[in-house]
Amino acid sequence: MAMPPPPAIANAVRDAISHDGRICVLTGAGMSAESGVPTFRGTQHDLWSRFDPMQLATAEAWRADAALVWAWYRWRMALVRDAQPHAGHRALAEPARRTSRVTLVTQNVDDLHERAGSVVDAHVHGSLFALRCFDCGSGHEGGLPPLDPAAQRIAPMACAYCGGGIRPGVVWFGEALPDDAWQVATDAARDCMLMLVVGTSGLVHPAAGLPALARRSGATVVEINPERTALSDDVDVSWRATAGDALPLLLGA
Ligand code: APR
Known about the structure:
The chain has about 250 residues and is of the alpha/beta class. About 35% of the residues lie in helices and about 15% in strands. The strands form 2 sheets. It has a 6-stranded parallel sheet, with helices on both faces. The chain starts with 6 loop residues before the first helix and ends with a helix. Adenosine-5-diphosphoribose binds near residues 29 and 203.
């Protein structure tokens, strides 16, 4: 049974709202965990348990074996398509409907925030479904062929312009973040009065630096995560709770 928000957190939210202060919400893979999308550093689904996501999510992995990487992403896409936003996603969408002073920054490449009714201001790690050519970068319009859910190798579709392989629109390890999304994220971190950091391990930079940037700029930074993280020592207050429990309690009223 979830406990009510720690008073320091409830007060920080109340303060930001009553002073019409900007709120930045930064979400990570833990935000989607209760929808059934596995986190990156948690236990993997059986089919893919012997592969390390950190080694599949790279351009080198794609060059070495695009069919393996594409099969993993097709599996993730199917998982996301079948997943539903939870009460935490819906609770986050609420304040954003009432005020434009909430900026939602996510590291997640799924579309669960959007399907819960939020506008995501910055997808700093891109979007799974924004398919583009690995070679020439052209966007891929058309749909996806049916998926054999047990497949561990699927040849990527061919680019209509150059014949290159079609890759997911995510930021792989070693790749630059999209400039526009990163600008929105850093502006939001600098300008906010309150930052809610939900479901991220704080291990992957530069996104993991956003809470520190917010704090240096004068914001109160609140972490919501059932586990201690690399960020926990550097936030104002941590709430050991899941996104699905905590956000409705915090923002539902
Ligand atoms: N509610 C909130 N947090 C949760 C929940 C939950 N139900 N379940 C797990 N968590 C927390 C874990 O305790 C962990 O701290 O979510 C975090 C997930 O951490 P990671 O798997 O490292 O995900 P994230 O921080 O988003 O990773 C950053 O790394 O692999 C890349 O690009 C990928 O965007 C990703 C980036």
